[in-house]
Amino acid sequence: MAATYSLDSGLQHSPISVATKCEILRHLWDVDVQPFTYYDSGLDFDAYFSYYTEQCSDALHDGGRHVSVRTHRDIVQITHHIKSSLDRNSIKQILSSELPVPKPANEDEILDGSIDLVARLLFMVNFGCLQYGFTGRRQVSWTENSLRKCIKKYFDAPLMLGQDTIKLEKIFNARNLGRIAGIEILWTKNLADHLSLIDDDNKVAIFHYASFLECQRNSPLFPDGLVDETLRTLALLFPGDKNTKKWFKKLSTSQNLDSNAIKCGRLRAEDRHIENFKLWHDRLIILKQVFDEAEPSTISQWWCDRRKRVQWYTFWIAALVLMLTVFFGLVQCLEGALQVYKAFSP
C-alpha cells in the first residue's frame, strides 16, 4: 500500500520517488513497472518525468492559484475522467462539485488549468496557455467533446501535398540536416510540433520521446497509426548507424534527450517511400524539399554534401587548383625576393 499512498505527495515535492513514478505510469499509461525494474525496463522513463515535473511546476506558479490539483492523486483522478471519454464540460462539472465552498472567483480558470495540465501530461501535446515556461509553437484547442476526439481531429487532418513518388534516401537523417543543409534541430516536448519547420525553414522541431511513444503503442487514446508512424519517423531520422549514434550520444548527455530515440531500428528501402507516411506525410515532404534545395554555404557543408557528386568533385578540384596556384605563386615571390636580396647583398 506504500506505493499507492505515495500518490498523495505534493506536486511541488522533488525528486519524485521511484515508487510514485511507477504508480503514475500505471494510471496514466497502463504500464505495469515495479520499482526494482524501473531502471532495467529498457525504456527511459526519467526523460518523461523531467517533462512531468516541469509541467507541474509551471502550472503551480503564483502559489497554485490557477489550478486545483495539488497531488499526484489529483492528476490520476482527472486522468480517469479523460480515459472514460467524458467531454470537457462533464469533467469540469465533476471537478467543480469537489471544490470547497465558497468557490473561488476564478473557478473556470482553475478547472480549465487543471484539465489542460493533465491533458498535456497524458499526450505530451500543448493544451491551454501557460503564462510561465516555454509552451511550444503549436497549441491544440480542446473546448468540447472528449479529448480522444479532439486529438483524432487534429492529427487526422487531410493531406495537402500529393507527391507520393518521393523516396527518403539514407542520407536524409537528423545528423545530415545540420551537416549538409544547415538546418538546426530544436528538440521539442510537444508532439504537435514534430517535424515542423520554423524560423524561415532554418530550424526543425523533433519530438524525441521514444520511450513515451513505445508505451502508447496499444493506447486507445491516440489515433490509429499515430504512435507507430511517429516511431518510424524517428527510425528514419536516427537510423542507428555508428556515426549517428556517436553524434546523438554527445547531444543526449547535454540536452537530456530520450536515449531510446536512437534505438527505433532502421527502415528498409521499401519503407522509406513517402506514401508509407500518412499522418506526418506533408511535414516530411516539406522538410525533404528544404533539405534537397539547400546549397552548401560553409567549407564544412561543401565537404559533407556529396549528393551531387559532379558538383562536389568540381568544387574541390577547383579549390585544390586555387590552393596550388596560391602556393606556387607564394614560392615564386619568395624565390624572387631571395634573388633580389642576394643581388644587393653579395
From TrEMBL:
Keywords for this protein: Membrane, Transmembrane, Transmembrane helix
Origin superkingdom: Eukaryota
Membrane spanning residue stretches: 313-334
Protein name: Uncharacterized protein
Species this chain originates from: Oidiodendron maius (strain Zn)
